[in-house]
Design brief:
Order of helices and strands: EEHHEEEEHHHHHHHHHHHHHHHHHHH
CATH architecture of one domain: 3-Layer(aba) Sandwich
Distance between the termini: 46 Å
Largest sheet: 6 strands, antiparallel
Low-confidence stretches: 73-79, 952-964
Number of helices: 21
Mean pLDDT: 80
Shape: flat
Length: about 950
């Protein structure tokens, strides 16, 4: 990846208004491939690197967090207001500049995939708390000269740049202090740390492991080939008779093995016969049981089967019986209906006679109603005239009653007004007295409270003056500068100790490494001298000569040649006439002695090769260590130069400080105490200032409360006095109403008396009219009476008409009933004829059935009746009978087939018993083929040794080169 632009706002000391912008592609940065970030302590060098990490990973080296770390500090006791939102020291949001409300880091970079991205990290301090950091990622593209942004998942950054946070710190950004840790670490720790810094923790370990593995494999292969060549000579069968005997023995053993396997197959076949026999016998027993079960289940429904057969043979008879019974029921129904109809005819005739009598009575009642109406008409007309006069008198009474009610209401209201006036006067006097008492009490309470507030204000003023005396003669700027100077001196001292320790450690490291390098160089010279003394070529040639000689001496051709030599005759090869090694007895000790010589030479060669390899490895290892040490010395010297530069800056500010780190350590208690004292003094001053501010607020608040209370008290007293005045005014007003209200009450009383007399007179006239009407028509209303008499006459006439219609309808019903009787008698006769036909047919069927001798059971009409009334589910019985019959047939067939198979199987019974066969099989299974395997392996080694001697010679040379 490549950085393009970095924007920073309010991060640590980088708090310039508008933020900071670093463009890595413009100006001097754009023209340089490498550059440094320099500046005094606290200028923001590390903040730039932290900003890059924050934008990419939401983490920064100066705020190392582990999984499970809390975001907030745990404050013991009751936290102050400012401590409630204090973050954990490891929370990267601490980087926000103190006093600033927001901050961000925006890094634009080119990724390896060719795309340009902008990673953003934003944090905000709200009213009381820090907001969660907001991380965003945008892909930047350019279209038609305009830059377009597309939001991408920020969590994909490790995949985009190919590095997670830890890998980024190891390869791209090495955090401040890492090289200092390197300088002060032990040799092993420096080795591990260097590997960690360059990301090669496992490379050198893997290389060493690979070298060791290859060496072990080469050594093992070399030893295997040496052993193989030693075994080849032993594996070759040189005696032809021995080879022939081995061949014949293998053939014999293979034939015996084939015979044993053939016999085992036959035994397995015979044992299988016995297994099949056992299965057949078990199956026969099983199928016999199933056959018995099928027969039993069929017997269980034997009675149902017989009833089903009887049912099937009597279907026609049952149908005839059902028809006869059906017609009998219809005949019974006809008779019942005839009885019912006859009864209804008698009832209708009696009802008609009764209705004729009622009709005569109704005609008499109608005549009487007509006469009564004509007699009452003169009295009704006179009463109607009196009724009009009565309504007029009644209206007069109502008017007089309303006048009396109004007079009573006016009198009651006037009396109530007089009573209310008296009550108001009493209440006004009580309220006036209460207002006077409340005013006196309020003045007393308010005066007491005012005295208390004034006293509290004086106390606050005095406390403020006492606290202000503590801050007199002190200046916060001076104290802050003193504290900052002490803190800076403390920081510079710690930096000085770190730098001097780094210088001392680095100097010692260089000295130790140079001493170690000198020792390694001397040791490598010794190794070169020892390697020059090791000479394996002559010894190797000597061994090869001896091995070839031994091979020739022991070869089959030379053995035959020696056997053909005779004393006194010249050898065709060497020309000698004396042949001491002609016989095997003389020759074998010589061969054995030569083999022992070759073995001793090979052991010596192996020891020299091992020594040469060990020395070469040691030399290579020493060379690697020398190279590493030289690189470390160069890096350490570079680090020392940087530390010396840092020391010169520190020493220029503190020329009285010693050079030794131990002496600098001795200054720490005094410097730290000065810093602590300056910090405490500033804290005490700030605390006192804070207390002065608090007391000033208390004093001002007390004075304000006293002034506010004084104002409120004045208002409350004025309100109480106003209320007292209002009570006095209200009381005088009520007393002024009393005389007028009493005069009105006397006038209302007279009006009520006049209204009462007028109402009494109107009621007397109304009563006289009512008595006159009563004399004519009694207590009846003329219109109602006339309507009643008219209605009675109309009702009587209607009753006569309705009764006449009822009698006519009854005569029609009687005629209809007589018609139904005739129809039912005809239907009954037809049903009797049809029943007799069915009964006769059933009798003939029974006679024919009983005459048939194939039927064992004689049937009667009663039997047919029982079958007709049966509730059996004949189809279910039929299905069950078929299912169980099929099961019986299947069981019989299966048993028959299994019995036949068993009979056929008995014809192939083996001669031996099962126990004899098992014993023979056990014996054959226990046979050993070790002799055959060893013989064939011997022959195989012989053949392999003959065919692979040449290729393995080449392989031996290759392995020897790798081994060396």
């Amino acid at each position: 990846m490549k950085f393009i632009k970095l924007k920073i706002l309010n991060l640590a000391s980088l708090d310039r208004a508008g933020g900071e912008v670093i463009n890595f592609e413009e100006g001097a940065l754009g023209e340089s491939n490498i550059f440094s970030i320099v500046g005094p302590t606290g200028s923001g060098k590390s903040t730039l690197l932290d900003a890059i990490c924050l934008a990419l990973y939401n983490r920064a080296p100066r705020y190392p967090r582990k999984k499970g770390d809390k975001d907030k500090m745990e404050i013991l006791g009751i936290p102050d207001v400012g401590e409630k939102n204090r973050l954990s020291p490891k929370d990267c949001r601490n980087i926000l500049t103190r006093g600033k409300k927001e901050g961000y880091s925006k890094l634009t970079f080119l990724a390896n995939n060719g795309n340009v991205y902008r990673a953003e990290w934003y944090v905000e301090f709200k009213t009381k708390n820090y907001s969660n950091a907001i991380c965003s990622l945008y892909r930047l593209t350019s279209r038609k000269g305009k830059t377009e942004e597309e939001e991408v998942d920020w969590n994909k950054i490790p995949a985009i740049i190919g590095l997670d946070y830890e890998q980024f710190l190891r390869t791209v950004l090495i955090a401040q202090g890492t090289f200092a840790n390197f300088l002060t670490a032990s040799e092993d720790e420096r080795y591990q740390l260097l590997e960690k810094l360059i990301g090669n923790e496992e490379i050198y370990t893997n290389i060493a492991t690979r070298i060791s593995k290859v060496k072990e494999e080469a050594t093992r292969a070399f030893n295997e080939i040496n052993a193989y060549f030693g075994a080849i000579d032993k594996d070759i069968i040189k005696d032809k008779n021995e080879l022939d005997a081995l061949t014949k023995r293998i053939d014999k053993l293979e034939e015996e093995e084939r015979s044993a396997k053939t016999e085992l197959l036959k035994i397995a076949e015979s044992l299988g016969w016995y297994d099949t026999e056992d299965n057949l016998e078990k199956n026969i027993s099983l199928y016999e049981g199933k056959l018995s079960d099928a027969r039993n289940k069929l017997d269980e429904i034997k009675a149902d089967a017989e009833r089903l057969a009887l049912h099937d043979s009597t279907i026609e008879a049952v149908k005839l019986y059902d028809n006869a019974e059906k017609k009998q029921k219809e005949i019974d129904g006809n008779e019942t209906e005839l009885k019912s109809l006859s009864k209804k005819v008698a009832q209708k005739e009696a009802e008609i006679d009764k209705e004729n009598i009622n009709l005569a009575k109704l005609k008499d009642e109608a005549q009487k109603a007509n006469q009564t109406l004509e007699q009452q008409k003169p009295h009704i007309n006179k009463a109607r005239t009196l009724k009009g006069e009565l309504e007029s008198a009644n209206t007069t009474v109502k008017e007089k009653q309303i006048a009396k009610t109004n007079a009573e209401g006016a009198f009651s209201k006037a009396k109530q007004d007089v009573d209310n006036n008296a009550a108001a006067i009493r209440k006004g006097e009580e309220m006036l007295q209460a207002a006077k008492d409340a005013l006196e009490k309020l003045k007393s309470v308010l005066q007491k409270k005012a005295d208390e507030l004034n006293e509290e204000a004086e106390k606050g003023k005095k406390a403020l003056e006492d606290e202000q005396k503590k801050t007199e003669g002190k200046d916060s700027d001076t104290l802050q500068k003193t504290k900052d100077a002490a803190e800076k001196k403390k920081t510079d001292l710690n930096e000085a100790i770190r730098v001097r320790k780094g210088i001392e450690t680095g100097t010692k490291t260089i000295s130790d490494l140079e001493k170690k390098n000198k020792e390694l160089e001397e040791r490598n010279k010794e190794i070169e001298d020892e390697l020059k003394k090791v000479n394996t070529e002559d010894l190797t040639k000597e061994i090869e000569t001896l091995r070839k000689t031994c091979t020739l001496m022991t070869s089959e051709n030379w053995r035959e040649h020696r056997a053909s030599l005779h004393d006194g005759e010249e050898c065709p090869l060497c020309g000698s006439t004396h042949h001491p090694y002609k016989s095997g007895e003389t020759f074998e000790p010589v061969v054995h002695e030569m083999e022992e010589l070759i073995s001793s030479k090979e052991d010596k060669l192996k020891k020299q090769n091992d020594k040469k390899l060990r020395l070469s490895n040691e030399k290579s290892q020493n060379a690697g260590i020398l190279e590493t040490n030289k690189s470390t010395i160069a890096d350490t010297k570079e680090a020392l130069r940087n530390l010396e530069d840092e020391w010169r800056v520190i020493h220029s500010q503190h020329t009285d400080w010693p050079l030794e780190s131990d002496n600098l350590e001795k200054l720490k208690p005094s410097v730290e105490q000065d810093a602590a004292d300056a910090s405490n003094t500033l804290k005490e001053y700030n605390k006192a200032v804070k207390e002065v501010d608090r007391l000033r607020e208390v004093k001002e608040r007390a004075e304000k409360e006293a002034n506010n209370f004084k104002t409120e008290s004045t208002l409350k007293i004025k309100e109480a006095e106003k209320k007292q005045t209002e009570c006095t005014t209200d009381l005088q007003t009520e007393k002024g109403k009393t005389a007028n209200l009493k005069e009105q009450l006397s006038e209302k009383d007279k009006n009520l008396s006049d209204a009462t007399n007028a109402l009494r007179k109107a009621n007397e006239e109304l009563e006289a009219k009512k008595q006159a009407i009563k004399k004519e028509i009694g207590n009846n209303d003329p219109d109602v009476l006339e309507q009643s008499l008219t209605t009675a006459k109309d009702n009587a006439d209607k009753a006569v008409k309705d009764k006449t219609e009822t009698i006519s309808n009854l005569n029609a019903d009687l005629k209809e009933l007589n018609g139904k009787i005739d129809s039912t008698n005809q239907t009954k006769a037809e049903n009797i004829s049809k029943r007799e036909t069915s009964v006769n047919a059933l009798t003939e069927w029974l006679a024919s059935y009983n005459a048939d001798k194939s039927h064992q059971q004689k049937l009667s009409v009663e039997d047919i009746a029982l079958l007709a009334e049966a509730k059996d589910n004949w189809e279910e019985i039929r299905a069950c009978l078929k299912e169980r019959g099929d099961a019986l047939t299947s069981a019989e067939t299966t048993l028959k087939n299994e019995t036949k198979a068993h009979t056929e199987h008995q014809q192939n019974k083996p001669i031996l018993t099962k126990e004899e066969l098992a014993a023979r099989k056990k014996k054959l299974d226990a046979r050993s083929i070790t002799e055959l395997v060893e013989a064939k392996a011997h022959m195989q080694r012989h053949e392999s040794a003959k065919t692979t001697d040449g290729p393995h010679v080449q392989k031996e040379a290759g392995c020897r080169n790798v081994h060396e």
